[in-house]
Write a structure and sequence with these properties.
The complex is a heterotetramer of chains A (about 270), B (about 450), C (about 400) and D (about 350). Chain C has about 400 residues and is mainly alpha-helical. Chain C has 18 helices and four strands. Chain C has a domain of about 270 residues. Chain C has a two-stranded antiparallel ribbon with strand order 1-4. The two termini of chain C are about 15 Å apart. In chain D, the strands form two sheets. Chain D has a two-stranded antiparallel sheet with strand order 1-2. In chain D, strands 3-4 form a two-stranded antiparallel ribbon. The chains are: A alpha/beta (about 270), B alpha/beta (about 450), C mainly alpha (about 400), D mainly alpha (about 350).
Chain lengths: ~270, ~450, ~400, ~350
């Protein structure tokens, strides 16, 4: 940790480019918990349509950064803007309605609802907004959305479990369901928090393929990942977070060859 | 649940509405209008007639309710036997075993001391068990609610323990009758005794339960004590069931008042009295006079609970077991032999009500409410423990002597809590029926 | 599987038939008399409404009795001031209970969990205490608000004399104190039960619609994982408030029907124990199911009315087939649990249900049905899982 | 001035009782994560330990006294307590006088047992059940216990007396130079001192013993403590028993102030929950603070001067404070984030 702290002082600003066409802009964000700096002076720009990976050792502040983006945490200083809208201070549901969806690290599905219903909730949210009062609109009659939901579930490989309760699913299946819940909203920005953690290798590969497909659809993605196989398969650009600071940023190739990153994070880990 | 359904049905058939007609012809087919030769609500067709005893069996007043039930059972025994207990000393000799040739059966209900629950159980007894009349209760809110219901349903209501003026005042109903006394009579009876005991130059401080009965009580005591020259320092409302009354009692210490009037009943009475005594009020000297505490309506059952604390404290009661007239003695003997302890005033008033109702039916020769009511109106009787008594026709209120009592200094047993200080004669407590307002309206014999 | 509206219709029709035939169904239990039947319908309605909040969103309100009270008071005032017709009374009650629910819900829903429960409890207790004492000019305190004859003496206050302006304008003659009616049809007795039963069926239909709607699914999602819902773009609070107001309106309707079938309104209807009672009903029958709360309401009201009336005499008559000594022993043992001991039975019933059948009676039925259906294939199992919320 | 002083004393007294009840309640929340609706009933059971001891001590045989007659005119059967026969009149008088303090010993044993049985027999099966289930099952248990007490002791309040030596009223005014009207029952002062002692003991126990340390750690983070390999189950049982004993002792000592009746559990249930919630779920300090605060506010609200301005304020003060506190301080006075919010 001490090593990263010292090296972080010279956070390389030169990597920041493309602010003009960036869709998500994290600006000088600072967050501390009880005196512990979780994030310091984080600046980050994510370009429209790119897949941006954030990597870093455990406790580097990756999840905190994501939580700041979706409104779960309020930064002490700095701001997050998405497509010109300031996200800081907005409620989570407002941020989602702007087109930012999040896939959680530990699956946060609706355990008492069926798999299909789990996907229908975000689908309805996308269509109807954060609140509509029409208590008589039959849920069962939403055929168009349901077809879409079934298609999405098929794309993550859950087509066989539409009526199962989410609580009865395996952890891996819950992660896939999480992904489907994010995808169904066709968000402009999808934040993925370790989408493949805990998955078996072949499932991971399937997920990578799926995410690659979406990439072709032009959705902007921010992905937090430990698995370098995933990162280097998907990312257009990578930011490295250590000790709450961004210590490097660039294309996968640049990051691979960045000695600071190697020193601070990759170390002896095989890439 | 399935093995429970049997007791109801069998039980109700046996003890309950053995009047039979009520159950064998389900109401479903008759509707609420009484077809098939009934000329009034629940007219008994068989050899039995069913009384409905509606008393609190759960909640704070359940001990009183139990005592009422005991008295009712005793009364039913005596009525069916045509004698025993106070029936032997009762001035009317109409009852000769059963009523109008029918054996009396009864059903019971739990009022929970809540108006809604009391009305619901009364309705069950009327609609399902075929009760010809309803009697009981231990609070005025409940009595008034049930009285209104009986008026609508077309059965007679013989009120139990209810002390508010409204029962036979503002809220009186033709089908309702009350044997118990009320706050007006308490005030009229108590005030002169208080004046004799404590002098005419007193300042009273009232603590009043914050609901209708409390207000009624406070109003009556104020009216009569102020009429005798007393002053009222303050009248403070306390929440029902306040528990610890200390924060209401400490202001009394500095108020300059020398009498504390506790317009509380039941648990509130025990609690506020205990608190007041523990604050040393009974031993206090104010303005050179001994401080006095008054509990206008005593309940011996509750006072028994208040133990030591009631010693020397004045109040009024409808009846007390230590009275030495023949009626009281006979009642105490029959009750005591059956249950092993003396009856309470609640037991006494409900026993009287059951006897009075049965007697009126016998004299009227029918159970039809309007005719039973006529037989009760203006009925003068004696031998039921209160001396000569009259059911006044104008408001269906009994007028009789009122007992002023005081907590006994040297009780000989745990039941011997109160001693009778004075028997205020009826003439002194009587008032004009118009005084309390309200209107009886016509009798209702039920939908025919 | 979402198009199973046929099942919903079957459930609805079955429920309607059961409700309308309640007098026949209750006959073997000795429960066939108007008051109990009315109470079953009224508290069934209350519990259905309560279930929309508690069963679907999981928010446990201890203050719903306040809306019962509001509904009752409003209805009686409508009878006193406007007309004896039940329709305006019911409408005003529902609307004003809705307004109260909006105000209380708006404030209480700023908190969740037990904090929410305590807030609703606090509001209801305040309503109760004030109605019992300080607000007596409106509520007539302990005695309860009652109907009176028309005012003839202008000195009398509105508590002691009624005006009924609409009825007067229509020239309706009154002798003494009238009873509420539904366009000339009386609303007490069996007529009253059928009046309530029809409203119960309508209420059930609406609740069924709500449960099966998008809105209903959002409410279930709130119960399941409110936090996740926020990140899905749904603002939970308006949904909660809507559910709170709807269930408050159901409670107001139930309170109004209490006044319509029996025109008196007392403050103790608002006490927290009354709110607790509806929670017990819902849990006993089955939280989150449609039929369960009605069933629970029925059982509790039946126990309150009938079990409490089985006094010792009745019990010992029942055991009269036993030898004398055994009869006494059995009778005195059983009488611990019935008659004045019926609270004990209620308490034990509760513990048993919560310990062994957390899903209430409905879960019990499902388990029994499950015993016979075991050999069937998986398909029916998953079907019953989706059909679950509709039961 | 005198009056305000007296009302503060009243408030401290009520507050003492509230704090003691709430203390156990919040302790059980904080460590076991259980919402115990039967906690008020434990307070009631404690109070009935006193009544039961009284019954036991006065267990009597009957001796016919031919000189006196009973209410039916028969020769009076006098009840002679065995204690009196066995140990003499002086001793029995002493025992009866000190009934309340002696029953503390009984209450510790009885309430400890009740606590252990309740926790082992029922509560432990509900650790992982939803709060609503916990509320319902303990509510059911509260009804059952209350009805059993009612069956044996009746529904009427049964007054208990403090020992004579502290049974009177003290002229505090004379001690501290206020007017002659500042008199206060000695037992209420004893009660305040007692509740303060118990509160301090509980805090000291949690602060300075290893056991207490583990419990406090458990309140902060239950999972971690479980991971440390500590037998948390046994400690839960002890914590629950401790809470039961504290509530029971509060009940025993309260009997001379308020005659106990079977319904105390329900009477104090809502109140104790309000206290705990106002203090903040799972916060011991909060419970004590809120207990005393609500006690004092309640006393002030019942003053005539206050009631003249806000009629009926004494009826609703507790709830009003609860609403205001919860809306301004989301987790009560001293509550922590995330406790009991799901």
């Amino acid at each position: 940790m001490a090593v990263t702290e010292t090296s972080a002082t010279e956070a390389p600003r030169e990597f920041q480019s493309g602010v003009a066409n960036s869709v998500l802009h994290i600006n000088d964000v600072h967050k501390s918990f009880a005196g512990l700096h979780a994030l310091s002076d984080v600046d980050l720009a994510v370009r429209e349509g790119e897949t941006h990976a954030i990597i870093g050792p455990n406790g580097a502040g990756k999840s905190t950064l994501l939580n700041v983006c979706v409104g779960r945490l309020k930064p002490d200083r700095g701001s997050v803007t998405f497509d010109g809208e300031i996200l800081t201070g907005k409620e989570p549901h407002e941020i989602n309605q702007l087109g930012v969806a999040r896939v959680f690290q530990t699956p946060e599905v609706f355990p008492d609802l069926t798999v299909l219903e789990n996907v229908m909730v975000p689908a309805l949210s996308k269509r109807d907004g954060h609140f509509t009062l029409n208590p008589f609109k039959r849920f069962g009659a939403e055929t168009r959305l349901r077809d879409e939901a079934e298609a999405t579930l098929k794309s993550v490989g859950l087509q066989g479990q539409l009526t199962a309760l989410a609580s009865s699913m395996s952890r891996g299946d819950k992660r896939r369901l999480e992904l489907a819940m994010g995808l169904i909203q066709h968000p402009r920005l999808l934040l993925l928090d370790e989408p493949t953690a805990g998955m078996a290798r072949h499932d991971t590969n399937a997920t990578i393929d799926l995410l690659k497909q979406i990439k072709e659809g032009g959705m902007t993605k921010v992905i937090i990942e430990h698995d370098m196989h995933v990162v280097f398969s998907l990312a257009d650009r990578i930011s490295v977070l250590a000790g709450g600071r961004i210590i490097a940023q660039g294309t996968p190739e640049e990051i691979k060859n960045n000695p600071k990153v190697k020193e601070a994070y990759l170390g002896d880990e095989e890439v | 649940m399935s093995d429970r359904k049997n007791p109801t049905r069998r039980g109700v058939i046996k003890t309950g509405a053995a009047a039979g007609a009520a159950l064998s012809t389900p109401y479903f087919f008759t509707g609420t209008s009484l077809a098939g030769g009934h000329s009034y609500r629940n007219e008994p067709k068989g050899k039995d007639v069913t009384f409905g005893f509606n008393v609190p069996q759960t909640g704070a007043y359940s001990e009183e309710g139990k005592d009422e039930l005991r008295a009712y059972e005793l009364a039913v025994e005596h009525i069916n036997a045509g004698g025993g207990g106070m029936l032997d000393t009762f001035s009317s000799k109409a009852l000769k075993g059963g009523v109008n040739g029918k054996t009396v059966k009864f059903v019971t209900g739990d009022t929970q001391t809540k108006s809604d629950a009391a009305r619901a159980s009364a309705k069950r007894m009327i609609e399902s068990d075929g009760a010809i009349m309803i009697t009981g209760g231990s609070s005025s809110g409940v009595a008034i609610a049930v009285q209104g219901l009986c008026q609508e349903a077309g059965v007679i209501f013989m009120a139990g323990l209810t002390h508010s003026n409204d029962t036979t005042g503002k809220d009186k109903r033709a089908n309702g009758f009350r044997h118990f006394f009320n706050t007006e009579m308490t005030g009229a009876a108590l005030a002169p005794v208080l004046k004799n005991a404590f002098g005419g130059e007193r300042t009273a401080y009232h603590l009043t339960a914050d609901y209708t009965w409390g207000w009624s009580q406070e109003g009556s005591i104020k009216k009569y004590t102020e009429g005798l020259g007393w002053k009222t320092a303050a009248a403070v409302r306390t929440p029902l069931g306040a528990g610890d009354f200390s924060s209401y009692i400490t202001p009394v210490l500095n108020s300059g008042a020398d009498v504390l009037v506790l317009n509380h009943y039941g648990k509130d009475m025990v609690n506020s009295l205990t608190n007041a005594v523990k604050f040393g009020l009974r031993d206090k000297q104010v303005n050179g006079k001994d401080f006095a505490i008054v509990v206008p309506l005593y309940s011996r059952l509750m006072a028994q609970g208040a133990g030591e604390n009631v010693k020397g404290i004045f109040g009024s009661t409808n009846w007390h077991w230590s009275l030495s007239d023949e009626g009281s003695k006979a009642f105490v003997k029959s009750f005591g032999e059956k249950y092993g302890f003396p009856p309470s005033q609640a037991a006494h008033t409900t026993y009287c009500q059951a006897i009075l109702y049965a007697d009126a039916c016998q004299r009227a020769g029918t159970f039809k409410p309007s005719q039973v009511g006529k037989a009760l109106e203006g009925f003068k009787f004696d031998g039921l423990g209160n001396g000569p008594t009259e059911y006044r026709a104008e408001d269906h209120q009994c007028f009789k002597d009122v007992l002023v009592v005081k907590g006994k200094e040297n009780p000989s047993s745990k039941f011997d809590v109160l001693e009778v200080v004075e028997v205020t004669p009826r003439a002194k407590v009587e008032y004009k029926p118009e005084l309390l307002g309200g209107e009886l309206g016509p009798y209702n014999d039920g939908p025919v | 599987m979402f198009s199973q509206s046929r099942n919903d219709w079957l459930l609805f029709i079955g429920f309607s038939i059961a409700v309308l035939c309640a007098p026949i169904l209750m006959e073997p239990f000795g429960g066939n008399y108007p008051d109990l039947l009315q109470k079953l319908a009224i508290f069934g309605l209350f519990a259905i409404g309560f279930n929309i909040l508690f069963g679907l969103t999981g928010y446990l309100s201890f203050g719903h009795a306040a809306f019962i009270g509001v509904g009752s008071y409003v209805s009686i005032w409508s009878f006193k001031l406007l007309t004896m017709n039940a329709i305006p009374a019911v409408l005003f009650s529902v609307i004003i209970a809705g307004v109260f629910a909006f105000l209380i819900g708006y404030v209480s829903l700023r908190r969740s969990g037990i904090y929410f429960s305590i807030l609703t409890l606090a509001f209801a207790q305040m309503c109760y205490s004030l109605a019992y004492s300080v607000l007596t000019p409106i509520t007539n305190g302990e005695t309860g608000l009652q109907l009176r004859a028309l005012r003839t003496n202008p000195d009398l206050g509105l508590l002691d004399a009624d005006i009924r302006v609409l009825d007067q304008a229509l020239g309706i003659q009154e002798t003494s104190v009238p009873t509420p009616n539904f366009f000339g049809l009386q609303t007490s007795g069996y007529e009253g039960f059928y009046f309530c039963a029809v409203i119960l069926i309508v209420g059930f239909f609406i609740a069924q619609k709500i449960t099966n709607s998008n809105f209903g699914m959002m409410l279930k999602a709130i119960k399941s994982n409110q936090n996740r819902l926020n990140y899905t773009g749904i603002h939970a609070r308006p949904y909660l408030l809507a559910a709170f107001v709807i269930s408050g309106m159901y409670a107001g309707l139930a309170g109004s029907l209490m006044a319509v079938t029996d025109p008196i309104a007392g403050a103790e209807r608002m006490q927290w124990t009354a709110s607790g009672e509806v929670v017990l009903m819902t849990i006993l029958g089955g939280v989150g199911t449609l039929v369960g709360p009605v069933l629970g309401a029925g059982i509790i009201k039946y126990a309150e009315q009938k079990v409490s009336s089985w006094n010792e005499g009745i019990i010992s008559d029942f055991f009269s087939f036993l030898p004398a000594g055994l009869q006494d022993f059995t009778a005195s043992f059983v009488s611990l649990f019935v008659g004045e001991g019926w609270h004990l039975t209620l308490g034990l019933l509760f513990m048993v249900i919560v310990i062994f059948l957390p899903g209430g009676m409905m879960e019990g039925f499902r388990r029994i049905v499950g015993l016979f259906k075991r050999p069937n294939d998986n398909d029916t199992v998953s079907n019953s899982a989706t059909a679950q919320p509709a039961e | 001035m005198d009056e305000i002083f007296l009302q503060v004393l009243n408030g401290l007294d009520k507050g003492g009782a509230y704090a003691l009840i709430a203390l156990g309640l919040t302790l059980v929340f904080g460590t076991l994560g259980v919402v115990n609706f039967a906690h008020g009933t434990l307070f009631m059971l404690g109070a009935f330990c006193t009544v039961a001891l009284n019954r036991m001590l006065t267990t009597s045989y009957q001796r016919v006294n031919p000189d006196k007659t009973d209410f039916l005119g028969n020769p009076l059967k006098e009840d002679i307590p065995y204690v009196q026969d066995w140990f003499g009149a002086d001793f029995s008088a002493f025992v009866f006088d000190y009934n309340v303090p002696i029953s503390i010993l009984l209450a510790i044993v009885v309430m400890g047992l009740v606590g252990v049985i309740m926790e082992r027999g029922l509560i432990k099966h509900f650790y992982n059940r939803p709060h609503a289930d916990q509320i319902l099952v303990t509510f059911g248990l509260a009804i059952v216990m209350q009805e059993i007490v009612k069956h044996y002791f009746g529904a009427n309040p049964i007054p208990q007396n403090a020992p004579d030596i502290v049974g009177g009223a003290a002229n505090i005014g004379a001690w501290i130079g206020l007017g002659d009207n500042v008199v206060y029952p000695v037992w209420r002062l004893v009660y305040f001192a007692f509740s303060a002692t118990i509160i301090f003991s509980v805090f000291a126990f949690l602060q300075f013993t290893t056991f207490g340390m583990v419990v406090r750690a458990g309140m902060q983070d239950r999972e971690t403590v479980g991971l440390l390999g500590i037998n948390i189950e046994r400690r839960f049982t002890i914590v629950f028993a401790l809470a039961a004993i504290v509530a029971g002792l509060a009940g025993v000592m309260y009997t001379p102030i308020l005659p106990p009746d079977y319904h105390w559990g329900m009477d104090f249930l809502v109140l104790s929950f309000v206290v705990v919630v106002v203090g903040g779920m799972g916060s011991l300090g909060g419970a004590v603070l809120a207990g005393f605060m609500l006690g004092i506010l309640q006393s002030f609200a019942s003053m005539n001067q206050v009631k003249a301005i806000f009629p009926g304020i004494d009826q609703i003060i507790i709830y009003l404070v609860a609403v205001i506190i919860l809306l301004t301080l989301p987790r009560g006075l001293m509550g922590r984030k995330g406790v009991m919010e799901d």
